[in-house]
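Dear colleagues,

As part of the handover before I leave the project, I'm documenting each prediction I ran so the next person doesn't have to rerun anything. This entry is a single chain, and its sequence is reproduced below.
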Amino acid sequence: MALLEIKQLSIHFGGVKAVQDVSFSVEEGDFIGLIGPNGAGKTTVFNAVTGVVPPTNGTIYFDGHKINGMRPDKISHLGIARTFQNIRIYPKMSALDNVAIGLDSHASYHTVSAMLGLPHVRRRDEEIRKTCLEFLEQVGIVQYKDTEAGSLPYGLQRKVEIARALATRPKLLFLDEPAAGMNTAESLELVSFLQELHKNTGIAIVLIEHHLEVVMEVCKNIHVLNLGQMLASGTPKEIQKNQDVITAYLGKRRNRHDGE
């Protein structure tokens, strides 16, 4: 069985069919792109998998577990992490403390023990700090460990968010438009970063992104949604040549890929 298996997923909001009969799978170690025009249903699919919205129909299996209807925290504990299109960090907290939040679900002591400052709590806190530093180093921003996250440049804030997601030790990472708000140079740097991250961790990644140059460079396979339905699936080269995708997503025939 695939790591993630989505079968005939439909999500309706009243009379609006946001997602209709979408099926795809993600294998361990995959790097998948999920693209489509605004309103195609991409983030809604993410929200269904992570427990934010309930599916109307269909089934979602992760690592052998049916996760329909599970709470987001339970799904996270199974091994799914995500970032958001709009960065969600604690701006007044340090980069290190933001990452530590991702480790909270693994805490091994009670509040009373923490208040008393018992030795095993201090040891655990030191372990958490060391682990957080490792994740910050993994995304290349360990030098900003004590800096308020909100004061960092946009691209570095995105890396703080990714480091926090990695701190939950996921088997599958959803990235929702990590290049949003970035210029071309920053987007190209993100490509290198994501390629290195995938190579070093082996984590399966599903990427939503409007910067097509990012998707085409980093993803092995791409699924295209349009009006809540699956329009096409294939390799980057196949998607670039697909006339349905060109018409629905790009709006016109182009000689080379570029963003919206």
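Confidence is low (pLDDT under 50) at residues 108-116, 253-260. Strands lie at 4-13, 16-26, 31-35, 57-62, 65-66, 80-82, 172-176, 204-208, 221-226, 229-234.

All the best with the project,
I.
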